[in-house]
Write the structure tokens for this entry.
Amino acid sequence: MIIERPAAQTATAHVYAAIKQRILEGVYRAHDYVREVSVANELEVSRTPVREALRELISEGWLEAIPHHGARVSAWTEQDAQEVFEIRLLLEPLAVNKAAQHIQAFQLDRLQQLATRMERLADQANGRDKIAVLNHEFHRELIQASGSQRLVMVLDNVVRTSIIRRNFHHYEQEDVLRSMHHHREILRAISVANPLWAENVMRTHLLAARDLYFQLKESDND
């Protein structure tokens, strides 16, 4: 027997997904307010599911509640960035090591497709937001391929937060191409079942991303 979800719950899920996607794509940026009325009008829903979706996004850390002003996109502090990169450097190379041992053919195909789509977008001026979304999906698929649900659970939110907080618009072309090259080398290592190679390239990939993130932060503050 199939039990259908109540319409209100479906509407909340729809609003939740739409707002989160806009954050991922950079439509809503740090400190931008997400207004109930505007979202309700744009998505053609009542304010109730919008309110419920905002509450859920606040509880997950995507938004923060500002008294008497509403909900706005959470900013990422320097300490947040340091902690997130530390966690990723410890656990994501391990996940890739396991992926090199356990990955399924369909998962590797999916990762190859994502890498190709990112490479095609790298030369497009308006492709950076789309790269951010695909990059999140690429890392998520890699972690899923580890076969470890505990790693998936721990890293899912950490990786997502790390990627969406980086502004790919500020990347030089060589930085984007370096990232694309790392993706391909990780996939090459996985395809020949070399866990240590895959692990080391992922660590290099994350160290480069961390260094670039803080370089850009410094230049923004100058």
Residues 1-8 have pLDDT under 50 and may be disordered. The first strand starts at residue 33 and ends at 34.
